[in-house]
Write a structure and sequence with these properties.
Layout lengths: L9 H26 L5 H27 L1 E3 L4 H11 L5 E7 L4 E3 H22 L3 H6 L5 E11 L2 E8 L12 H9 L4 E7 L3 E9 L2 E11 L2 E6 L3 E5 L6 E4 L4 E6 L2 E7 H4 L13 E7 L2 E7 L1 E11 L11 E6 L5 E5 L1 H6 L2
Helix pairs in contact: 1-2, 3-4
C-alpha cells in the first residue's frame, strides 16, 4: 500500500494559518463596505457572495488547523507509562485524563510535555500520601492523579490534579524553573491546595491565534466582543426579576428559580452607560466552568467571526481581556474574557 503521509514544516503551517486569519479580516472589511452601500439587487448579490466566501474561509481554516492538531487523549498512554515508572512502592496511584476530545496543536504538546510530566511527578512525590496514610485519613488506598485540559476564550489550560494532602508551593520541585519555562509562552502557573483534599496545579497559556464567533455588545459609546460560546441567553429584565442582596448594592437575577449574580460591565470597565437602571438595559447570561453571571449591557449588535490575537506579546496582560481583533472598518475590537470576570466575582 502506498504511504500517503507527508512531513510538513510546522512553521509553514503557522504561516498558512496566519494568512487564513488575514482572509477573515479582509472578508470582514469587504462585508462592512458592502453593508454601507444603498439597498439594491447588486448589494444583495454581493452579500451572498461574501457569505459564500466566508464559508470557504472557515473550511480552509478548519483544514489547515486539523493538519497540526491531535486529540489530547492520545497522550494518555504516554503519561500513564511515565506515572508507573515514578510511583514509589508504598503508594498506589491511578491516572485519569479529562478533556481527551479536545484537539491541541502538536507542537504545543511537544513543548509542554516535560512540564506536564514534572507536574505529575510533583503530585506523586509530594501530594499523594502513602497507602498507610490514606487509610488513616479514611481515603481509598489508590490515589487519583488527573491530567485535565480546558479551552475557553482564547486560553488553554493544562492542569494536574491530585486527591492527596495539602502541598506548600515550596514543596513543588523547581517551581522557579517551571515559571520561567511557562513565561516563554506568556503563560501563568496557578496553584490551589486544600488540606486532605488535594492540589491542582495549572499551566494557563493564551492561544497565539484563534478564529471564533463573537457578539458585538455596546456599553455607552464603547463596543466590545463577547465570545458566543460563553453565551447562554439574553433577556430584558423586569423589576420583579431583580432581587437585592445585603445593603442593596448587589443584585441577583431570578430566572426560572435560579439566582444569578448580575455584573454591571460599565462599572467593570469604568464606562458611562446609556442608563444605569437594570430594566433599561439588557442582561446576557454567560457561563464559564459551571459558573453563571448576567452581564448588564446597553444593547447587542451583530454577530461576526473574528480573529483573536493575544496582546501580551506587544503590550501586557490585561485582566478581563482575552485578546483583540481587527474589525471590518479597520478599528481594534476588544474581546472580553468571560472566565476571568466570573472568577473575580
Amino acid at each position: 500500500m502506498t504511504n500517503t503521509n507527508v512531513t510538513v514544516d510546522l512553521q509553514k503551517l503557522e504561516k498558512l494559518l496566519n494568512k487564513v486569519g488575514d482572509l477573515v479580516i479582509t472578508n470582514s472589511m469587504m462585508a462592512q463596505s458592502v453593508e454601507n452601500l444603498p439597498s439594491s439587487d447588486e448589494k444583495k448579490s454581493l452579500i451572498e457572495k461574501i457569505t459564500l466566501l466566508q464559508r470557504h474561509i472557515v473550511e480552509l481554516q478548519d483544514y489547515a488547523t486539523e493538519i497540526r492538531m491531535i486529540k489530547f487523549g492520545t497522550m494518555y498512554e504516554i503519561y500513564a507509562d511515565y506515572l508507573k515508572q515514578i510511583v514509589p512502592q508504598n503508594k498506589k496511584v491511578k491516572l485519569q485524563l479529562v478533556g481527551g476530545e479536545i484537539k491541541v496543536d502538536k507542537s504545543l504538546i511537544e513543548q509542554l510535555d516535560l512540564l506536564i510530566k514534572k507536574l505529575i511527578s510533583n503530585a506523586v512525590l509530594f501530594g499523594i500520601e502513602t497507602v498507610d496514610q490514606r487509610v488513616l485519613n479514611d481515603k481509598n488506598e489508590e490515589a487519583i492523579v488527573k491530567v485535565v485540559i480546558e479551552q475557553l476564550n482564547g486560553q488553554i489550560s493544562f492542569s494536574v490534579v491530585d486527591d492527596g494532602d495539602i502541598v506548600d508551593k515550596e514543596d513543588i520541585e523547581n517551581i522557579s524553573e517551571l515559571k520561567e519555562n511557562i513565561s516563554k509562552f506568556n503563560g501563568n502557573l496557578e496553584i490551589e491546595s486544600v488540606e486532605k483534599v488535594g492540589t491542582k496545579v495549572s499551566i494557563i497559556i493564551p492561544l497565539t491565534h484563534s478564529i471564533l464567533d463573537g457578539l458585538n455588545i455596546k456599553i455607552g459609546n464603547s463596543i466590545f466582543i463577547l465570545p458566543t460560546a460563553s453565551i447562554v441567553e439574553s433577556i430584558q429584565p423586569t423589576k420583579d426579576m431583580i432581587k437585592y442582596v445585603g445593603d442593596g448594592s448587589s443584585q441577583l437575577l431570578m430566572l426560572r428559580n435560579e439566582f444569578i449574580p448580575i455584573i454591571k460591565l460599565y462599572e467593570y470597565f469604568n464606562i458611562t452607560p446609556k442608563s444605569k437602571k437594570l430594566e433599561d438595559g439588557l442582561l446576557i447570561i454567560v457561563k464559564s466552568q459551571g459558573q453563571k453571571a448576567a452581564f448588564l449591557i446597553d444593547e447587542f449588535l451583530q454577530q461576526q467571526q473574528v480573529v483573536l490575537k493575544t496582546i501580551e506579546t506587544n503590550f501586557r496582560k490585561v485582566d478581563s481581556v482575552a485578546g483583540a481583533t481587527v474589525r471590518g472598518d479597520g478599528s481594534i475590537g476588544i474581546i472580553i474574557d468571560v472566565k476571568t470576570i466570573l472568577e473575580a466575582h
